[in-house]
Amino acid sequence: MSLGTILTAMVTPFDRDGRVDEDAAVSLLGHLFANGSDGVVVCGTTGEAATLDDREHLGFIELIVGEVRASYPGKTVVAGVGSNDTRHAVKLTERATAMRPDALLSVNPYYNRPPRRGLVAHFAAVDAATDLPIVLYNIPQRTGQDMPNDLLAELAQLEHVSAVKQANAANLARIDGLELYAGNDDLLARVLDMGEPGGILTSSHVFGNEMARMAREPEHRSEIDASLADVYRDMAIAPAACSCKAALNLIGVQVGTPRLPYVALDEAETAVVRALLERHGLLQPSAGIA
Q1: HSE-CB for 185 with a 13 A CA cutoff
Q2: Does the annotation mark 137 as catalytic?
Q3: Which residues share a beta bridge with 138?
Q4: Of the residues 72, 165, 181, 245, which is catalytic?
Q5: Which residue ranges form the domains of the chain, and what is each CATH number?
Q6: pLDDT tens digit sequence for 210-243
Q7: What b/e sequence results for 176-190 when a residue is b if at least 16 CB atoms lie within 10 Å of its CB, and e otherwise?
Q8: Strand 39-42 to strand 179-182: parallel, antiparallel, or no bridges (unpaired)?
Q9: CA 275 vs CA 84, 226, 250, 270: distances in Å
Q10: Which residues contact 85 (CB under 8 A, 6 or more apart)?
Q11: In sequence order, what are the residues at sequence separation of 6 or more whose Cβ sits closer than 8 angstroms to the Cβ of residue 58?
């Protein structure tokens, strides 16, 4: 695979009535590709996939794939197709495959916490439903279940499983047959130091150029990573869908507010994100604030 280095886990913009805002999505796509992103991951956690019905979910994938193919040659799209119902995951995989993104992102079944044999059977069913590369997603803090590296190595034997988005720092290691993508923003430098491709990131919505420099300037990677410590800290003040939408709206890239059960940042949280943007020169200091 060649998906790129900075892959942004793209938010799903909503309009004032809470509907998917396609025009805002197209504008956001342009912003991301002009500011460090090599590709986008759509309909993942940060894309609020859990709140999208299948029509919205698949329609958003189709929209973004079509826009990238028409206007951004060389950029990539990874489509989220995860579910904790294997039949639903297979359906999403089949439908998304027909839209021809560059790869698919598939998380292990959350909440159910199946035994190892169930996990292998689940991903075997997903693998059989596509001819596209599959990026596994290990994020135990959300799924309630870790996929250890020996299991990932077993899953790498499936025909289309090609990479893993690793959000468990304790598991950060090379695995034969899998490319490794940082699943947390603060793991990007470590993954690049390992010689792996890059990361599926959230702060790159607004700090993409700075994050991309870590790949372009390996001699300055540690310094750049250290300069982003406040980004990793302050963007985590709320779930990524919420903090990224707030930051984008503040810099003039309008994406609306999250859907329940997520909520928009409150005044204090917004002040933290605003101050972060000001420190990094992405927003003019507020009047009266030194």
Answers
A1: 29
A2: yes
A3: 166
A4: 165
A5: 6-226 (3.20.20.70)
A6: 999 999 999 999 999 999 999 999 999 999 999 9
A7: eebbbbbbbbbbbbb
A8: unpaired
A9: 38, 18, 11, 9
A10: 109
A11: 92, 95, 96, 99
Alpha carbon distance 92, 58 (integer Å):
8
Q: Which amino acid is at 208?
A: G
- Tens-digit pLDDT profile for residues 102-124: 999 999 999 999 999 999 999 99
pTM tops 0.90, yes or no: yes
For position 289, what pLDDT does the model report? 42
Residue 20 contacts residue 14 (beta carbons within 8 Å): yes
Give, in order, the Cα–Cα distances in Å from 264 to each of 113, 236, 243, 269, 284: 30, 14, 8, 9, 22
Tell me which residue of 44, 16, 13 sits closest to 29, measured CA to CA: 13
137, 181, 232, 245: the catalytic one is 137
Known active-site residue 72 = no
Phi and psi for 203 in degrees, rounded to 5?
-65, -15
Question: What tokens appear for 58 in the block?
Answer: 């698949």
d(CA 250, CA 274) in angstroms, rounded, equals 7
CA torsion sign, 210 to 212 to 217 to 221? positive
